[in-house]
Every structure is written in structure tokens, then in C-alpha cells.
């Protein structure tokens, strides 16, 4: 019955890729002093009785490096979109021009930049924890197979090193992404 164990490393990779994609999404929502349509992704508007993302009630554009515009399709929702942006905690003061909402992006001061790098570090740590949890899941599968006698000790060591190598590579990717994001935030 030995050697019939095969760890699904593709599944582990897929799940770790999911943690990386989540980290990239969280990093995209951090304001770096440059205008970006993705900074509005977490903002939800109470439209037609349900919470709706801004990009589903209007067209989001970035006409210049310090300006985001939202062309709201339904005139009745302009006030709700403006209110949602004000209450979002983005620190942006919307300006109305008919159905177009303009969002001038202010320059970040040094203190705010440092706060944002700390937030980025927290996001990265959450991603590391997710990757480590997936590592633990893989190790648990290996230990269970060993306990069921379907895995030799040599095979157990091989699979454990495979899972550890995979984990190390994803932790390294998280660290690289964090370094790039922190440099982007601190850039004046």
C-alpha cells in the first residue's frame, strides 16, 4: 500500500496564487499620491436598494495623474456616489460637475506615506499568514498519509521539503511585492 500517496501541489499553488491575487488587490487600493481607478474598488454605493461597486453605476476614468473622474449614468445616484466617496475614508473631497464627479488626488505628506507603508506591511503579513496556513494544510495531509501507512519516511521527507520550498517561494514573492509597494508609496 506504500507509495500511492500523491500530494496535490497544483492545488496548493492555486490556493497560494489566490493569496497573492488578494494581496495585489489590497495593494491596488492603497493610495500612492497618483490617481488610479482601482483605488475606488472598495467603495460601495447604495444604488437601487443594494450595495453596488462604483464602476457599476458610472464610468471611472483617470484623465491625468492627479485626477479621477466618475461619469455617473443615473442622475439620481450622483448624490449617493458622492456620499459613498466622502464616507469611504479615502481622504478625497469629491467635486460635482453635473453627472461627473471629479476627485482631485492631493499630494501625500510624509506622515501619511509612513502610515500607508505600515498598512501595506499589514496586508503583506496577512498574505504570509495565508500562505503559512496553506503550508500547514499540506503538511497535515502528509502526516495523515504517514499515519495511514500509505507513505514511507523518505517520501514523507520529500513531500515536506516540496511543500516547504513552495511556501518559501511564495513568502519571497510577498516580500518582493511589499518592497515594491513601499518604494512606490515613499516616492515623492
From TrEMBL:
Molecular function terms, GO-annotated: ribosomal large subunit binding
Domain Ribosome recycling factor residue range list: 23-186
Keyword 4Fe-4S: no
Source organism superkingdom: Bacteria
Example of a GO biological process term: cytoplasmic translational termination
Subcellular location as annotated: Cytoplasm
UniProt keyword terms in alphabetical order: Cytoplasm, Protein biosynthesis
Signal sequence extent: none
Cellular compartments per GO CC: cytosol
Family: Belongs to the RRF family.
Biological role stated in the UniProt entry: Responsible for the release of ribosomes from messenger RNA at the termination of protein biosynthesis. May increase the efficiency of translation by recycling ribosomes from one round of translation to another.
Annotated PANTHER family: MITOCHONDRIAL RIBOSOME RECYCLING FACTOR PSEUDO 1, RIBOSOME RECYCLING FACTOR
Listed NCBIfam families: frr (TIGR00496)
Database matches in HAMAP family: RRF
Protein name: Ribosome-recycling factor
Species: Puniceibacterium sediminis
Organism taxonomic ancestry: Bacteria, Pseudomonadati, Pseudomonadota, Alphaproteobacteria, Rhodobacterales
